[in-house]
Task: inverse folding
């Protein structure tokens, strides 16, 4: 029965508001006292416990020691922000459930609806009472903080922000009003208080949870997906979708020394949360009028009933099925390391979650077996979502643009010189995740047909590798190169296509080595092109073991001459010639950047050591003219011992930055003798072995190893795609460290490869794996 009333005077409305106040007063007193104890009292205790020596005015705006205020307003101590967020999350639900509990008792419903008041006035009276009880303690508590901070500006200094405190107050008022309004609307739709609480919790918190689990599935299982890192799919921004977490999480996105609101609005995370507050304010207003509209049409007979068959129940049941189904599926996926277990877990977890929720909502199993149909739909929709992702999302995984449709390609391959950094006028590294230049530090943009074709082949090969592995994706991680390709195509029609992979097989990745013959690639990655005359202190030269360092300062003219010589030699160099050993390695030349002289747009690689081979005729002529070639000479007779180890990307040694060919990289490849050479009296290692390193002391074998060793070469792979290349440490004279060189398995001296395989416990069939040049 829907009753209609005809009278709504201001006196009756005031009387109804007072009645609602009396009913909720005990809870309001408890709520106010609790908030005062856990929020402003903590602020006051912290504020007045600061000794004069630690005043912020003395320390430029930050309190010294362990005392610190948090948040944009600086109104929170270590735990008060969390406690305030918890209070403001759950108390509005309690207020809404109590003030509208009369809707869930048939006798009380009949009494209230028999009063001479219109339903919208009745709803407004109860709503206003609850909202006042929620907001009054917030206003008083923030008022205390505002006044206390005003009296203690000598302590707080520029940590006191009155407008920011009022801004935070407005934010808390919005989220409490939003939660309270959702609860009131749910109370109108629900038939009992238990359902009101349960569904209010669901509707206030389900949105970020749904998106979070959807994000986990898509980012974890859809091969090539770049990830959702902005907008609503950013993990931090998701928190703005729930009034439970909006203000609490925003506290972590700003600090008390950031005072200018307009400057803060330039920060993406802060701006997003500000507009999220405005959105929740508008949504709350809309929800209020929606709840009034529903209340006017609510039948009194609904009081006391369960909501097992309502639309409210159906929506929440699907959400519960999705969240717990996907969560259980991800758990089984991680446990068994098999992709298909995600589907199995989704079915099992979704069915269990649906059954439990249905039994709770219906207060038993009386709705079964009729509920099985809805269970099938809910679980089925979740399985469809998971299956779409696992099967490639309608061709997403296999989509590669045609070669003639590509204008340029960007790939995160840097060759042997590593990441590149920008420097400011003070010589400090300038790298910001939000800076567009951040992308440039780890990628190159190529337009030549040969390079585009090479990257496209890498893309196609990676797709074949990963899709072919299926459930062995994680198991086969060790066979992958030590980088995951990130590829972006700029198409001739103006569109872009981007893919990001967590791994790539060594065999497929080797095709990227051909990029190092591209002039565009060299100009974007090689330090000889990135640094300019006038930006160097000088150069340091070493021999091929990276020993005998000698520094020589160069004037601007000398720098210009050297860089021009290097650039000519680099552009004439073919990687396949250097890697095949056509030209012997002479040594390394390190460009010593003068940080405070760098131009704003200059990028400097992590590694500025250039391998100089006999092919670098112009550079060697410059070094000869400056008396530096003698500094790069090495006497093989001074090599006394050697240690051999199979190349592993997990060991600091060969190829740390490339992974597609073996390279004796000074940036991470220099090891200490103590770490790998056993002491002669070291009985634990039997005087011969230390870990995975095998000691070689026979002079003939040491000499043969040195003659076979290279500073750069192709990676030797077995039939399973695993590296078979060796790295060798040579003990040179009295030096206690040296750069590890590389040796192709086919060039290992007789008996050494067999000895090493036997030591490592691997079967030796006498076959020698030869490195295949793939450039």
Result:
């Amino acid at each position: 029965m829907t009753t209609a009333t005809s009278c709504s005077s201001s006196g009756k409305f005031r009387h109804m508001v007072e009645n609602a106040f009396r009913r909720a007063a005990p809870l309001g007193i408890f709520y106010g006292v609790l908030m005062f104890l856990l929020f402003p009292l903590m602020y006051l205790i912290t504020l007045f416990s600061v000794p004069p020596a630690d005043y912020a005015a003395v320390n430029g705006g930050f309190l010294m020691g362990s005392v610190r205020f948090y948040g944009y307003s600086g109104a929170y101590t270590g735990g008060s922000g969390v406690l305030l967020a918890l209070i403001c999350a759950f108390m509005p639900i309690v207020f809404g459930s109590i003030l509208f509990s009369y809707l869930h008792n048939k006798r009380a419903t009949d009494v209230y609806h028999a009063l001479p008041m219109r339903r919208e006035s009745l709803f407004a009276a109860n709503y206003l009472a609850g909202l006042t009880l929620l907001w009054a303690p917030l206003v008083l508590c923030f008022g205390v903080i505002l006044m206390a901070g005003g009296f203690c500006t000598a302590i707080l200094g520029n940590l006191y922000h009155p407008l920011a405190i009022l801004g935070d107050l407005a934010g808390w008022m919005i989220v409490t009003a939003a939660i309270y309004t959702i609860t009131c609307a749910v109370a109108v739709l629900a038939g009992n208080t238990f359902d009101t609480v349960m569904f209010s919790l669901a509707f206030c918190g389900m949105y970020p949870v749904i998106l979070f689990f959807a994000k986990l599935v898509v980012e974890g299982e859809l091969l090539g997906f770049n990830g959702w890192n902005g907008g609503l799919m950013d993990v931090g921004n998701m928190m703005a979708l729930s009034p439970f977490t909006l203000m609490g999480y925003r506290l972590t996105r700003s600090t008390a020394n950031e005072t200018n609101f307009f400057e803060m609005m330039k920060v993406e995370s802060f701006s997003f949360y500000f507009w999220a507050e405005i959105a929740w304010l508008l949504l709350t207003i809309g929800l209020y009028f929606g709840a009034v509209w529903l209340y006017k049409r609510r039948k009194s007979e609904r009081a006391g009933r369960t909501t097992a068959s309502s639309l409210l129940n159906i929506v929440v049941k699907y959400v519960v099925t999705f969240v717990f189904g996907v969560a259980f599926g991800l758990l089984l996926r991680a446990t068994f390391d098999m992709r298909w277990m995600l589907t199995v877990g989704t079915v099992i977890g979704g069915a269990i979650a649906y059954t439990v929720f249905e039994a709770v909502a219906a207060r038993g199993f009386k709705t079964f077996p009729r509920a099985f149909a809805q269970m099938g739909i809910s679980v089925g929709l979740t399985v469809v979502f998971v299956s779409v992702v696992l099967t490639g999302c309608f061709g997403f995984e296999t989509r590669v643009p045609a070669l003639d449709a590509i204008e340029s390609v960007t790939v995160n391959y840097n060759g042997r010189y590593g990441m590149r950094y920008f420097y400011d006028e003070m010589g400090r590294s300038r790298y910001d995740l939000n800076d567009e230049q951040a992308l440039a530090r780890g990628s190159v943009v190529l337009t030549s047909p040969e390079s585009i074709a090479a990257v496209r082949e890498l893309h196609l090969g990676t797709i074949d590798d990963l899709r072919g592995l299926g459930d062995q994706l994680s198991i086969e991680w060790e066979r992958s190169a030590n980088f995951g390709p990130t590829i972006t195509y700029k198409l001739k029609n103006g569109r872009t296509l981007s893919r990001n992979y967590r791994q790539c097989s060594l065999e497929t990745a080797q095709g990227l080595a051909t990029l190092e013959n591209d002039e565009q690639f060299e100009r974007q990655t090689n330090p000889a092109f990135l640094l300019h005359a006038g930006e160097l202190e000088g150069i340091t030269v070493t021999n091929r073991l990276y020993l005998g360092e000698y520094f020589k300062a160069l004037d601007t003219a000398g720098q210009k001459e050297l860089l021009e010589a290097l650039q000519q030699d680099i552009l004439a160099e073919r990687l396949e010639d250097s890697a095949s050993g056509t030209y012997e390695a002479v040594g390394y030349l390190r460009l010593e950047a003068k940080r405070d002289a760098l131009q704003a747009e200059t990028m400097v690689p992590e590694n500025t050591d250039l391998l100089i081979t006999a092919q670098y005729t112009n550079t060697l002529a410059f070094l000869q003219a400056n008396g530096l070639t003698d500094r790069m000479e090495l006497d093989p007779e001074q090599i006394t011992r050697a240690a051999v180890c199979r190349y592993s990307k997990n060991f600091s040694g060969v190829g740390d930055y490339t992974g597609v060919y073996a390279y004796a990289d000074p940036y991470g490849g220099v090891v200490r003798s103590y770490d790998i050479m056993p002491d002669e009296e070291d009985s634990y290692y039997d005087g011969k072995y230390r870990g995975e390193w095998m000691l070689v002391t026979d002079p003939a074998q040491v000499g043969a190893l040195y003659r076979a060793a290279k500073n750069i070469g192709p990676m030797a792979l077995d039939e399973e795609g695993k590296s078979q290349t060796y790295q060798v440490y040579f003990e040179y004279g009295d030096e206690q460290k040296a750069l590890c060189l590389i040796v192709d398995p086919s060039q290992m001296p007789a008996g050494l490869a067999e000895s090493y395989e036997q030591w490592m416990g691997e079967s030796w069939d006498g076959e020698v794996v030869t490195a295949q040049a793939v450039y």
Observations:
- The longest strand covers residues 585-593.
